[in-house]
Amino acid sequence: MFSPHGPSLRELAVQALSSVERGYDLLAPKFDHTPFRTSDAVLDAVERALKTMGPFDRGLDLCCGTGAGTDVLRTVCRESVTGVDFSAGMLAVARREVPSGGWPRADWVRGDARALPFGPVFDLVVSFGAFGHFLPGELPGLFTQVHSVLRPGGRFVFPIGAPPRPASPWYWTLLGFDTAMRVRNALWRPPFVMYYRAFRLGDVRRELSRAGFTVEHQALPDFGRRPDGSPRCRLLVATRAGGGAPAEVSRPPAG
Question: What pTM does this model have?
Answer without folding.
Answer: 0.86
